[in-house]
Amino acid sequence: MRINVGILLMAAGAILAFAVRDGSGPVDLTVVGIVIMLGGAAGLWFSYRVANQREQEEITLIKPGIEEQYDTTPHEYVIEEQIDVTPVEYQPGHSPEQA
């Protein structure tokens, strides 16, 4: 049952339950309309649950090859030399005229 059928059943049930006033037969149309509306609501709920089922699989957003390029885990080896990250203009022996 799709969403359209559920909405159609709810509308038809509402018409029977609230708009039609016929008490001459052995069937109470208000009760029939409410039952049809409940069937439409159940159909809407069921179609929503079926349409939004999620697989228990892991979703891969980034391809593994690309993810390896941007790996940020620290390396196992230790750098023996210190790296000087001081800007050139603040290093000793630099004068403004050299720039």
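The above is record 1. Record 2 follows with the same two-line structure.
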Amino acid sequence: MRHPARLGIALTIALATVGCSAAVGDRTEEDDSPAARASAKAASVTSCGRRLSFAEPPHRAVALDQTSTETLLALGLEDRMAGTANLKTKIPAQYAAAYAKVPVIAPKIATGEQLRSATPDFVVAGSSDLYTKDRAGTREELAALKVPTFVSAVDCPQQNQAVTSPFEQLFSDYENLGKVFGAEQRAGKLVADQRAAVAKAGENASKVPQGDDRPTVVYLYSVFNGMPYVAGKSGLPSEMSRIVGAKNAFDDIDEDWPEVSWEEVAKRDPDFIVIGDLSERGRPGDSAAEKRATMTEHPVISKLPAVHDNKILEVPGIELDPSVRSVHALELLAKGMKDLGYVR
């Protein structure tokens, strides 16, 4: 960040201006409804070890990544957003109209200057690594400017050890953000809908062989320089596997997406393979078709029954990382398990 002192002064002045004008000119008709006025109260939540306090709901929130952007859009908060950044794939159709209303402050990872130009009164991120000196600025720097910063509970499991499921961590995000914005009812509905989807995906888990007979699955996220990146123990796919009654074949590696060898994949000999389609990201080896071709052309992997017999499922790659979209990938996994014959 260049000229931090001057930027800080500018941001402080801008935020003061925003605080005055937002109460009069930036409110929508919904904001001025009796229900909205009743919910426009002080709120306090804890995010990744920091207590955040709000005298009133934010009016100029900035989301630093796609996950946070889509969460705010799912909560119907586009009119309270002053910016988004770091979009990796297309916004889903159901959020497209709302997303079009929000300024894009940076096509990739936002810098401190880009963030400050949006004069935010609240910043939301899916991961804490977006808050660094060479990115948006540290949480401490932004706190000194009276800008609260939120990090998804998924990135800080150590702060809430009682909530171990990535889905429940996401649900806690929705509830906390709903409280901050005075949108508790919308947040509650989103949580209820997604919790029901998780329960439905797990309905047939008891019909799948149990114990050591559980079907094993390899989640192939990407292929970089010819090497596969698969889901490890700490990523969302392990929880998805548990819900549907399967077992992640690389559950013994305590990483989200470790790089392994094709020989190690062959050694695990999974019953089926889930491919994350990252076509929209556009890097070599990202598309599902390229990953299929790599496996069918590999002298060892091509002989695996899962590949030879086409026991392969495709899901959007972005949905294999925790987000408001992840229940969709879980639904595809549950349906695929049934279609492949693993449900009795």
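The chain has two domains: 4-198, 206-339.
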